[in-house]
Structure formats: structure tokens, C-alpha cells
Amino acid sequence: MSRTASRLDRKMDLLKMQEKEGLLKSKEGSRAVGKFIQNKLALIGLVVFAVILLSSIFAPLLTKYDPAMIDLRARLSPPSWEHLFGTDKLGRDVFARVLYGGRISILVGFGGALGAALVGVSLGTYAGYKGGWLDKILLRVSEIFMAFPQIILVLLLVSLLGQSLWNLLVIFTITGWGSVYRMARSQMLSIREEEYVQALKAFGLSDAIIAYKHMLPNALGPIMVNLTLSTAMFILEETALSFLGLGVPLHIPTWGNILNAAQDLTILQEAWWIWVPVGLVISAFVLSINFVGDGLRDSADPTQQG
Amino acid sequence: MSQQTKSKCLVEVKSLKKYFPIEKGILKKVVGHVRAVDDVSFKIHEGETLGLVGESGCGKTTLGRCLLRIVEPTEGTVNFRVSPEKTVDVTKVDKKELRSLYRDMQMVFQDPFSSLDPRMTILDIVGEPLKMNKVCSGEEYVERVKELVQLVGLETGHLRRYPHAFSGGQRQRIGIARALALNPKFIVADEPVSALDVSVQAQILNLLKQLQKELNLAYLFIAHDLSVVEHISHRVGVMYVGKLVELASTEDLFTKPLHPYTEALLSAVPRPDPEVKASRIVLPGEIANPANPPSGCYFHPRCRYAVNQCKEVAPKWEEIKPGHYCACHRAKELDLSGVRETQSA
What pLDDT score was predicted for residue B249? Predict the structure, then answer.
């Protein structure tokens, strides 16, 4: 009993001494990483995310089929060793299409969400902190963008620039920044009243540093969740737009384009292999992003023990 | 006291006002003003503590923030002596100059739980003003922060910890260390001990006193606890609805108050002696509305000495005895009782 106690004492003394001399510095730096790794869900999310992302990027190594290659002799064949996920109406390999489709879908979903978050957060943080006319104007502008029918914006851009992936990203950014802006702004409004912000003001820190360096990290939690949710939303939205022929051109495989095939009732009923795997992949991807987002938020917050 | 008057005046506040507009309707028409700070004048000398007491909502905090221009004052001047030759008006300087002024005047906040950024380590919190003003960097920076942390009685080993790992008293020490980072001459302490429990209060008060001695600091010490103020202050000002009603040395104010409001406040101080029968003066009515104050003397509806003159004419802020200021028509004739125990001090 006493031996254990004295051993623990010695350990504590050692820790204290190390801390005093600043030797624990390097450990502190990786504290956030350690916490993230301890979070099982986040770790699983990260693994799933990485697997899907990497297999999309390295698609040619994982399948011998060209996603656009039509093979009419093998139309609507069920899953087999030849075709892992079977083939679609035109005899294209679904597995290859899911892999290659991930490239576009992830880019559009993630890119759109990131673009919207970047614009929304950077404007919302500053305007929410400063308030006044800048905030009022931006708030109205964001309302206009949110009230504007997305489809008209899409039509406008497509008719001006033609159908392309980049248009989609621009459109998602334009239509998506409003809600992020409002969220960041409302967070800042409450943090603005905290005394540490007053304290920073009393040190003569510039507004931008107070807003971005000190207040933004404290507002990041809900924004992070919003980012992960809108990634999922944009992946599905891309589906809808592609279906109308306004998004990614139909011959390019995307998760949305593949799912669209299930609009056909016979396929929905008889060829489950076309839409079930891709649906699962989308769900898994969205879920993994959610877990990773949660994990990032928790590990970045020093007040959360774990 | 006498030695205090001889030392040089550091901060001079002249008829400082802060009115918050009350807006109504879609057009934001200004229908009135909340007079949070209403024509307040006083001086603070080098190395001196001026206590400021009053009920909640009487404008103490707003006054403190006006001095640092965290809240923009509506009118009046705050003259701050930067160096023996140079005095600047804090209310008039531009942003850049204000920033350099913050090296000399700082603030300690009331709530130690919200006044530290929860995402930064102590090293960063205390060091932020150093980095900001490019005072030092690298090794020197860490050394300076260590020095500051030791000065307020914390362990240097805790520098890499986050605020949530500290108790209220420790956090307040961190707040003080942060305020001291740039070697200020003047600190506005806005109820620095109100959020702490009594034993920790004493530690923090003694720390503030000790720092004052070592660094020749001047404090504006805002509080609502009279015994705290008595312990730390050289002089004490009493505020009522945005106005200073009395200002005197601590001993004078506690033993021979001149304003009826001060007398009532003093009678409410709890005494640790069960034998003493407390003769509390209970003020009738509510504290006056600063948006719609009474005529004449703001205190007259609650004052038991009020005469007709009090209802009509606002009393002047006068020096009744040397160093003892009061705003009351009857200051010279009344004989008010203070707290007896302090006479020994």
C-alpha cells in the first residue's frame, strides 16, 4: 500500500518538475491530436472518410473498367466477381462509376460547403463583432441570397458560362454563405459580451485580431457541425441539379447521377445493386464527415476533458 | 492622507458624462437618455487607491470603463499624466495614441470566469499585450510572462494550462498579471473580488495592496462591499444614480460621513460583533430611475433629512472640509454617524 503511494508520489514529483522546466511543452502541442485519437467515433469517421476519399482518387488502381464504357451484352447484370456492384442499364460497371463518381461528388459537396463556410464565416465574424451598418447591410444581402430561388441562379450561370463543375461550386457558395453568415454572426453577438473581449479591447488589440484570433475559435463548434451537414446537403443537391441537366453533365459519373437511374421504377424494384451501394456510400461518407467534425470540435476545445 | 495630497495627480476627471440614448419606434427616435454617469469629477493621485462604491446600477462600472474609453464618454475630460511633462485627454486622443495609452492604464475585470479566453493558455493570455505592443519576443517573452505570473503568486509551471484548470482566485490572479504586463501606472479594478468567496477575497486584496507598494500603482477600485473598500482604499467616493455624492479619505468617510446616503450605506455594513445592536437606516422606496431622475437632489425622495430646497435645487459638489467633498444642501448642518470601529485605523 505505502509502496504504491510512494511510487505515485515520485511520479507526481517528476511530472511537476518536468512541468516547471517546460519539458511537457511538446506533449501539450499534441494534446489535441491525442484527444482526437481517443475519440473512437471520430477515429472511425476519419478512417471511413480516408478510405472513400483515397479509393476515389486512386480509382484506376482498384477497377479495370472505364466508368463510361458501355457494354450492351452485360446490361443490368447483378453483382458478381466480374462486376462487383453489377452493371447498369447501359452495361456500365457500377463499382467503377461509384469510385470515379466520388471524385466529383466529394469535390462538389466538400468544396461547396467549404466555399460557403469561408465566405460566410469570414464576413460573419467581422460583421458580428463590429455590428453597425456593415452588419445591417450584409444581413440584408444574405437574406436576398437566401430568398433567391437557387434554380434561377443556376439557369443564369449555366446560360452564361455553360454547364460545368465549377459553376456548381460557385452556385453552392453563393447560395450557401447566407446561413453560415447568420450563424457565425449570432455566435459572435453572444461572445462579444464576454469580459475577455472587453479585456482584449483594453489592450488596444485591433478589431480584426480580436474577432478572428480570439473570438472565432470559441464560435467554431456550431459552425463545424453546420459545415459537415451542408457537405451532405450539397452532395444531394448536386444530384438534383444533375438530374435536371443543369449540374455536372450526365455522361460524367457522379454519385448523384448514379442514383438518378433509380428514378426508373423497374430499376428501383428489380436492380437494387444500382442504387443501394451508392446510397450506402453517400450515407457512410456523410456520416464520417459528421463524426470527424464532432471530433475536431471536441479536441480543439480545451475545456472538454477526455 | 497628507502624504497622498502631496503626491502628484495622475488622473483628473472633469464633469464626465455618459448618457445612453433610449430609442423608440422604427425610426429610432431618441426619446430620452439613461444618465449612467452624470457630471462626475475627481482626481486620483499616483500610488493611491480611490474606492468607488454605490448600489448596483448606479454607474460605477460605466464610469470605470469610460476612463479607459472602452465605453465612449458623452462629455467631459479625463486627463491622464503620461509623463511628468505630458498630460493627455483620454477622451480626445486618436486610436493610435489610445493604444499607447493602454500601456499606462489597464483594467481588472469582475468575473474571472468570463474574463479569460477559454481557448488560450495562460502563457498566451498574460503575454498577449506584450506580443501586441511588440515589447519583447522569444525567450525574453516567456521570461517576462514567468516573472509576471510569479509576481501575482502563481506557479510558473502552470503556464501551459488553460483557464478552466484554475480556481476563481487563481483566475483573478491571472487577470491581474495580464493587466500588469505592460507596466501600467493606473489600474481600473472593476469589482475584482465580488465573484470570489471571502477567504480568497482577502488574498486578492492583499495581493493588490502589495503590488501597489512594489510598483507604485494607482487604483480606481470599484466595489459594492464597503468593508472591502475600507480595507484597500486611501480615499472613497460614493455614487448614487450616476452622480458622486461624497468623496473623502477613507477614515473621514467612515467616521464622519457628510451625505445622508453615505450614512445609510454605512449603517448597512454588517458588524462581526453580536453585542452591538445594529441601528440600520432603511431607505424607503426604490433607487431612482437614471432615465427619469427626480428633481433637485436625486436622493431627496428617500432622504430622511430632506427639506423643501432639496426637491427643487440640485446640490452643488463642494469641498466642505479640506479633502472632503459632498453634494448635499445640508452637509454643513447635519451631524451624521459613521462606523465607529474604524477610528483606530
Answer: 92
pLDDT at A244: 73
**DSSP conformational letter for B149:** H
Radius of gyration over alpha carbons of chain A, in Å?
25
Q: Over the stretch A2-36, which tens digit does the pLDDT of each residue have?
A: 677 788 888 888 877 776 665 555 555 567 777 88
A285: Cα separation from own chain's centroid: 9
Burial category of A93 from C-beta neighbours within 10 Å (exposed 0-12, middle 13-18, buried 19 and up): buried
> What pLDDT does B211 receive?
92
Cβ–Cβ contact A214 with B under 8 A: yes
Domains along chain A with CATH numbers: 49-63+101-300 (1.10.3720.10)
DSSP string covering A145-172, please?
HHHS-HHHHHHHHHHHH-S-HHHHHHHH
Question: Over the stretch A66-91, which tens digit does the pLDDT of each residue have?
Answer: 887 777 777 777 888 877 788 877 77
pLDDT of residue A20: 63
**Least Cα separation, residue B193 to chain A (angstroms):** 15
CA–CA min distance B106, chain A (Å): 7
Instruction: Give the residue among B154, B172, B160, B190 at the shortest CA–CA distance from B68.
Output: B190
Contacts of B8 (CB under 8 A, 6+ apart): B45, B46, B81, B84
Test A24 with B160 for CB contact under 8 angstroms: yes
Q: Supply A166's cell numbers.
A: 465549377
Query: Is the pLDDT confidence value at B3 over 60?
Result: no
Best residue in A195, A210, A305 for a mutation probing chain B (most B CBs within 10 Å): A195
Euclidean distance between the first and final Cα of chain B, in Å?
12
pTM score, whole prediction: 0.78
Would you state the torsion angle of the CA atoms of residues A269, A273, A274, A275, taken in this order, to the nearest 10 degrees? Answer: 70
Q: Residue B134: left if φ>0, alpha if ψ -120 to 50, beta else—which one?
A: left
Going by C-alpha positions, the residue among B294, B117, B184 that lies closest to residue A219 is B117
What separation, in Å, do the N-terminal and C-terminal C-alpha atoms of chain A show? 28
Q: Name chain A contacts of B172, Cβ cutoff 8 Å.
A: none
Name every chain A residue with its beta carbon within 8 A of the beta carbon of B98: 204
Mean pLDDT of chain A: 82
Of A206, A198, A204, A190, residue with least CA distance to B108: A198
pLDDT digits (tens, 9 = 90+) for A135-179: 999 999 999 888 888 778 777 877 887 777 888 888 888 888 888
